[in-house]
From TrEMBL:
Keywords: Hydrolase, Magnesium, Manganese, Metal-binding, NAD, Zinc. The gene is nudC. Signal peptide: none annotated. A motif (Nudix box) lies at residues 159-180. This is NAD-capped RNA hydrolase NudC. It comes from the Bacteria.
Length: 257
Protein backbone atom coordinates (compact mmCIF):
# COMPACT_ATOMS: atom_id res chain seq x y z
CA UNK A 1 0.00 0.00 0.00
CA UNK A 2 0.95 3.62 -0.39
CA UNK A 3 3.25 5.18 2.20
CA UNK A 4 6.04 7.70 2.57
CA UNK A 5 9.31 6.61 0.96
CA UNK A 6 12.32 6.65 3.30
CA UNK A 7 15.99 6.92 2.39
CA UNK A 8 16.46 3.21 3.17
CA UNK A 9 13.85 1.98 0.69
CA UNK A 10 15.49 0.56 -2.38
CA UNK A 11 14.70 -1.20 -5.63
CA UNK A 12 13.44 -0.13 -9.04
CA UNK A 13 11.70 3.26 -9.23
CA UNK A 14 8.82 3.86 -11.62
CA UNK A 15 8.17 7.61 -11.28
CA UNK A 16 5.29 8.29 -13.62
CA UNK A 17 2.63 10.80 -14.50
CA UNK A 18 0.42 11.31 -17.56
CA UNK A 19 1.82 8.26 -19.36
CA UNK A 20 5.39 9.51 -19.01
CA UNK A 21 8.12 7.81 -17.02
CA UNK A 22 11.23 9.25 -15.38
CA UNK A 23 14.34 7.83 -17.10
CA UNK A 24 17.45 9.68 -15.88
CA UNK A 25 20.34 8.60 -18.14
CA UNK A 26 17.73 6.79 -20.32
CA UNK A 27 17.45 4.05 -17.69
CA UNK A 28 14.92 2.97 -15.08
CA UNK A 29 16.40 4.18 -11.75
CA UNK A 30 17.63 1.35 -9.52
CA UNK A 31 19.07 1.57 -6.00
CA UNK A 32 18.36 3.33 -2.68
CA UNK A 33 15.69 6.09 -2.70
CA UNK A 34 18.18 8.58 -1.25
CA UNK A 35 20.42 8.24 -4.31
CA UNK A 36 17.61 9.65 -6.47
CA UNK A 37 16.20 12.18 -3.96
CA UNK A 38 12.93 10.23 -3.72
CA UNK A 39 12.68 10.20 0.11
CA UNK A 40 9.55 11.87 1.45
CA UNK A 41 7.47 11.20 -1.68
CA UNK A 42 4.50 8.86 -1.52
CA UNK A 43 4.93 5.47 -3.20
CA UNK A 44 3.75 1.87 -3.29
CA UNK A 45 5.31 -1.49 -4.18
CA UNK A 46 3.79 -2.89 -7.39
CA UNK A 47 5.82 -6.07 -7.79
CA UNK A 48 9.34 -7.46 -7.87
CA UNK A 49 11.98 -7.71 -10.52
CA UNK A 50 15.05 -9.94 -10.04
CA UNK A 51 14.45 -10.11 -6.29
CA UNK A 52 14.08 -6.35 -5.73
CA UNK A 53 10.93 -4.33 -5.12
CA UNK A 54 9.48 -2.29 -7.97
CA UNK A 55 8.01 0.96 -6.59
CA UNK A 56 5.47 3.26 -8.17
CA UNK A 57 5.64 6.97 -7.35
CA UNK A 58 2.83 8.92 -8.99
CA UNK A 59 4.81 12.05 -9.59
CA UNK A 60 6.44 14.11 -12.31
CA UNK A 61 10.03 15.35 -12.27
CA UNK A 62 11.21 18.47 -14.03
CA UNK A 63 13.58 16.63 -16.39
CA UNK A 64 13.96 13.26 -18.13
CA UNK A 65 10.22 12.45 -18.27
CA UNK A 66 10.16 10.14 -21.30
CA UNK A 67 8.08 7.58 -23.18
CA UNK A 68 7.97 4.00 -21.96
CA UNK A 69 8.96 3.04 -25.52
CA UNK A 70 12.54 3.86 -24.56
CA UNK A 71 12.55 0.70 -22.43
CA UNK A 72 11.43 -1.61 -25.25
CA UNK A 73 14.97 -2.87 -25.77
CA UNK A 74 15.41 -3.68 -22.07
CA UNK A 75 14.62 -7.10 -20.66
CA UNK A 76 10.95 -7.92 -21.36
CA UNK A 77 10.23 -8.54 -17.64
CA UNK A 78 11.53 -5.12 -16.67
CA UNK A 79 9.57 -3.51 -19.53
CA UNK A 80 6.38 -5.18 -18.28
CA UNK A 81 6.94 -3.92 -14.71
CA UNK A 82 7.56 -0.38 -15.93
CA UNK A 83 4.43 -0.71 -18.11
CA UNK A 84 2.42 -1.82 -15.08
CA UNK A 85 3.61 1.26 -13.18
CA UNK A 86 2.79 3.73 -15.94
CA UNK A 87 -0.67 2.22 -16.43
CA UNK A 88 -1.44 2.14 -12.69
CA UNK A 89 -0.35 5.76 -12.32
CA UNK A 90 -2.79 6.67 -15.09
CA UNK A 91 -5.54 4.49 -13.56
CA UNK A 92 -5.25 6.19 -10.15
CA UNK A 93 -5.12 9.65 -11.75
CA UNK A 94 -8.31 8.99 -13.78
CA UNK A 95 -10.27 7.45 -10.87
CA UNK A 96 -10.36 10.17 -8.26
CA UNK A 97 -14.18 10.23 -8.23
CA UNK A 98 -16.84 7.55 -8.67
CA UNK A 99 -18.54 7.37 -12.10
CA UNK A 100 -21.85 6.38 -10.47
CA UNK A 101 -22.25 8.78 -7.56
CA UNK A 102 -19.37 11.26 -7.80
CA UNK A 103 -18.08 10.20 -4.39
CA UNK A 104 -14.39 10.37 -3.55
CA UNK A 105 -12.38 7.25 -4.22
CA UNK A 106 -9.77 5.57 -2.10
CA UNK A 107 -7.10 3.11 -3.22
CA UNK A 108 -7.63 -0.51 -2.17
CA UNK A 109 -4.96 -1.73 0.23
CA UNK A 110 -5.13 -5.31 -1.02
CA UNK A 111 -5.29 -5.09 -4.84
CA UNK A 112 -4.90 -2.71 -7.78
CA UNK A 113 -8.35 -1.17 -7.45
CA UNK A 114 -10.17 1.99 -6.39
CA UNK A 115 -13.15 1.96 -4.02
CA UNK A 116 -15.88 4.58 -3.78
CA UNK A 117 -16.09 5.85 -0.20
CA UNK A 118 -19.80 6.64 -0.64
CA UNK A 119 -21.49 3.84 -2.69
CA UNK A 120 -18.67 1.26 -2.33
CA UNK A 121 -18.40 0.58 -6.08
CA UNK A 122 -15.06 -1.07 -6.93
CA UNK A 123 -13.06 -0.11 -10.06
CA UNK A 124 -10.22 -2.01 -11.71
CA UNK A 125 -7.79 -0.86 -14.40
CA UNK A 126 -9.31 -1.49 -17.82
CA UNK A 127 -7.32 -3.59 -20.25
CA UNK A 128 -8.27 -3.60 -23.93
CA UNK A 129 -7.84 -7.02 -25.62
CA UNK A 130 -6.25 -6.65 -29.03
CA UNK A 131 -5.43 -9.35 -31.60
CA UNK A 132 -2.46 -9.42 -33.95
CA UNK A 133 -2.19 -11.99 -36.73
CA UNK A 134 0.26 -13.07 -39.39
CA UNK A 135 -1.37 -14.85 -42.33
CA UNK A 136 0.76 -17.32 -44.22
CA UNK A 137 0.26 -18.39 -47.83
CA UNK A 138 2.82 -21.07 -48.76
CA UNK A 139 6.20 -19.27 -48.58
CA UNK A 140 4.67 -15.78 -48.20
CA UNK A 141 3.37 -13.60 -45.33
CA UNK A 142 0.65 -10.98 -45.48
CA UNK A 143 2.16 -7.74 -44.15
CA UNK A 144 0.69 -4.26 -44.16
CA UNK A 145 1.59 -0.64 -43.64
CA UNK A 146 -0.81 0.82 -41.10
CA UNK A 147 -2.20 4.33 -41.38
CA UNK A 148 -1.38 4.95 -37.71
CA UNK A 149 2.36 4.14 -38.03
CA UNK A 150 3.83 6.68 -40.41
CA UNK A 151 7.29 5.11 -40.30
CA UNK A 152 7.31 2.91 -43.41
CA UNK A 153 7.31 -0.39 -41.55
CA UNK A 154 5.23 -3.38 -42.63
CA UNK A 155 3.68 -5.48 -39.93
CA UNK A 156 0.92 -7.92 -39.04
CA UNK A 157 -2.79 -7.05 -39.10
CA UNK A 158 -4.21 -6.06 -35.73
CA UNK A 159 -7.36 -4.78 -34.09
CA UNK A 160 -9.34 -4.53 -30.87
CA UNK A 161 -11.89 -7.09 -29.70
CA UNK A 162 -15.42 -5.72 -29.63
CA UNK A 163 -17.87 -6.25 -26.80
CA UNK A 164 -19.42 -9.73 -26.94
CA UNK A 165 -16.89 -11.16 -29.40
CA UNK A 166 -14.57 -14.17 -29.06
CA UNK A 167 -10.93 -13.61 -30.00
CA UNK A 168 -11.38 -16.02 -32.92
CA UNK A 169 -14.23 -13.85 -34.22
CA UNK A 170 -12.12 -10.71 -33.73
CA UNK A 171 -9.30 -12.15 -35.85
CA UNK A 172 -11.62 -13.28 -38.65
CA UNK A 173 -13.50 -9.96 -38.68
CA UNK A 174 -10.41 -7.74 -38.56
CA UNK A 175 -8.68 -9.65 -41.36
CA UNK A 176 -11.80 -9.49 -43.53
CA UNK A 177 -12.39 -5.78 -42.83
CA UNK A 178 -8.80 -4.70 -43.41
CA UNK A 179 -7.78 -6.98 -46.30
CA UNK A 180 -10.86 -8.90 -47.61
CA UNK A 181 -8.99 -12.18 -47.06
CA UNK A 182 -10.51 -15.35 -45.59
CA UNK A 183 -8.33 -17.33 -43.19
CA UNK A 184 -8.25 -20.86 -41.78
CA UNK A 185 -6.29 -22.93 -39.27
CA UNK A 186 -6.05 -20.17 -36.65
CA UNK A 187 -3.57 -20.88 -33.81
CA UNK A 188 -2.81 -18.87 -30.67
CA UNK A 189 0.93 -18.13 -30.21
CA UNK A 190 1.61 -15.76 -27.29
CA UNK A 191 0.58 -12.53 -25.59
CA UNK A 192 2.22 -9.25 -24.62
CA UNK A 193 0.92 -6.45 -22.41
CA UNK A 194 1.18 -3.36 -24.58
CA UNK A 195 0.85 -0.22 -22.50
CA UNK A 196 0.26 2.28 -25.35
CA UNK A 197 -2.10 2.98 -23.73
CA UNK A 198 -3.57 -0.15 -22.08
CA UNK A 199 -3.79 -3.08 -24.47
CA UNK A 200 -3.13 -6.76 -24.11
CA UNK A 201 -1.90 -8.05 -27.47
CA UNK A 202 -2.80 -11.64 -28.29
CA UNK A 203 -0.84 -13.04 -31.20
CA UNK A 204 -2.13 -15.59 -33.70
CA UNK A 205 -0.94 -17.37 -36.81
CA UNK A 206 -3.38 -18.23 -39.58
CA UNK A 207 -3.25 -19.79 -43.03
CA UNK A 208 -4.65 -18.17 -46.15
CA UNK A 209 -7.95 -19.64 -47.27
CA UNK A 210 -9.35 -17.52 -50.10
CA UNK A 211 -9.83 -14.04 -51.55
CA UNK A 212 -7.73 -11.26 -53.07
CA UNK A 213 -6.23 -8.45 -51.01
CA UNK A 214 -8.42 -5.36 -51.01
CA UNK A 215 -7.33 -2.93 -48.29
CA UNK A 216 -9.46 -0.71 -46.10
CA UNK A 217 -7.86 2.70 -46.78
CA UNK A 218 -9.04 4.01 -43.39
CA UNK A 219 -6.79 1.43 -41.69
CA UNK A 220 -4.03 0.51 -44.15
CA UNK A 221 -1.81 2.36 -46.62
CA UNK A 222 -0.64 -0.81 -48.34
CA UNK A 223 -0.65 -4.59 -47.92
CA UNK A 224 0.86 -7.47 -49.83
CA UNK A 225 2.25 -11.00 -49.82
CA UNK A 226 5.98 -11.04 -49.02
CA UNK A 227 8.26 -14.03 -49.49
CA UNK A 228 9.87 -15.03 -46.16
CA UNK A 229 13.37 -14.18 -47.45
CA UNK A 230 12.39 -10.89 -49.15
CA UNK A 231 10.71 -8.95 -46.35
CA UNK A 232 10.23 -5.16 -46.16
CA UNK A 233 11.17 -2.99 -43.11
CA UNK A 234 9.77 -4.76 -40.00
CA UNK A 235 8.69 -3.64 -36.52
CA UNK A 236 11.48 -3.38 -33.90
CA UNK A 237 12.78 -6.23 -31.73
CA UNK A 238 10.88 -6.51 -28.45
CA UNK A 239 7.46 -6.26 -30.11
CA UNK A 240 5.21 -9.27 -30.37
CA UNK A 241 4.65 -8.38 -34.06
CA UNK A 242 8.34 -8.95 -34.73
CA UNK A 243 8.31 -12.25 -32.87
CA UNK A 244 5.24 -13.42 -34.80
CA UNK A 245 6.87 -12.55 -38.12
CA UNK A 246 10.12 -14.29 -37.16
CA UNK A 247 8.27 -17.42 -36.01
CA UNK A 248 6.50 -17.56 -39.38
CA UNK A 249 9.74 -17.01 -41.28
CA UNK A 250 11.28 -19.93 -39.35
CA UNK A 251 8.31 -22.14 -40.30
CA UNK A 252 8.63 -21.16 -43.99
CA UNK A 253 12.40 -21.66 -43.95
CA UNK A 254 12.04 -25.17 -42.50
CA UNK A 255 9.77 -26.09 -45.40
CA UNK A 256 11.14 -24.12 -48.36
CA UNK A 257 14.90 -23.74 -47.90
ZN1 LIG B 1 -19.86 5.84 -5.80
Amino acid sequence: MEREITGEDKGWWVVSQQNKIWLPGDKLPYGPAAEFSLSGLSGRPIGEWQGDTVWLINHSRSQNMASLRQLLNEDSGLFRMAGRGVQLAEFYRSHRYCGYCGGEMQHSKTEFACLCTRCHERYYPQIAPCIIVVIRRDDKLLLAQHVRHRNGIYTALAGFAEVGETLEQTVTREVMEESSIRIKNLRYIASQPWPFPQSLMMAFLADYDSGDICIDPEELLDAGWYRYDELPALPPAGTIARRLIEDTVALCRSEYQ
